[in-house]
Design a protein that fits this description.
alpha+beta; 12 strands; 14% helix; binds N-(carboxycarbonyl)-S-(naphthalen-2-ylmethyl)-L-cysteine; binds fe (iii) ion
Length: 194
């Protein structure tokens, strides 16, 4: 379910909280198990964070860069995720992980499934901020032809039910200047990892 502009009322609180998170756990470009450096820079907040390195993909309670726990999930993040999931028909969503992706011009995310989580019955809630991006939404098979959606500042999407395991990705970010966030797109995904 696509909720256009749903994050707008939370924008100021989210951006303030984001500054605190990034001060503790800066964005970094991780390596895939295959040894490729991702074009998207990432960080996390919550009890666990998604990480990738040469040994594989996993959720980890510790930020490998600092050796410290990830920053706590701020209250406005939890509130937004809960309210959006409720709109999408998933009452009581309590995410334990929030992956924060930063796209600069040219950054992209290839078609993939999110399946490192324990419980696929919980939805994933995504929040887009800053420059808009073309989101590609396929099907259960990698070969299913993706539909394209433009995701803009403040848009929230709730991915639950069958779509939870659909292939998806993001086309290379076009250059531009966003009034609030400048030359970047930030995407937050709220997850129930454990
Ligand atoms: C559909 N992020 O972090 S958010 C990711 O814009 C990821 O940064 C993209 O894919 C981004 O894993 C897309 C939308 C999204 C997130 C999770 C999904 C769509 C999804 C999980 C299942 C199906
Ligand atoms: Fe994903």
């Amino acid at each position: 379910m696509l909720l256009r502009g749903f994050a707008r009322p939370y924008e100021a609180d989210m951006l303030a909280a984001l500054r605190g998170i990034v001060a503790q756990a800066p964005f970094r470009r991780m390596f895939t198990p295959g040894g490729h450096q991702m074009s998207v820079a990432m960080t996390n907040c919550g009890n666990v964070g998604w990480v990738t390195d040469r040994s594989g993909y996993r959720y980890d309670g510790i930020d490998p860069e600092s050796g410290a726990p990830w920053p706590a999930m701020p209250a406005p993040f939890r509130e937004l995720a809960l309210r959006a999931a409720e709109e999408g028909g998933f009452a009581g969503f309590a995410p334990d992980a929030c992956l924060i992706n930063r796209y600069q011009p040219g950054a992209k995310m290839s078609l993939h499934q999110d399946k490192d989580e324990q419980d696929f019955a919980a939805p994933i809630v995504s929040v887009s901020l800053g420059l808009s991006a073309i989101f590609m939404f396929g099907g259960i098979k990698r070969s299913d032809k993706p539909k394209r959606y433009r995701l803009e500042h403040g848009d929230v999407v709730v991915w639950g039910g069958p779509s939870r395991l659909y292939f998806h990705g993001v086309a290379p970010l076009a250059d531009g200047e966003h009034a609030v966030l400048g030359r970047q797109r930030i995407n937050l995904t709220f997850r129930r990892a454990r």
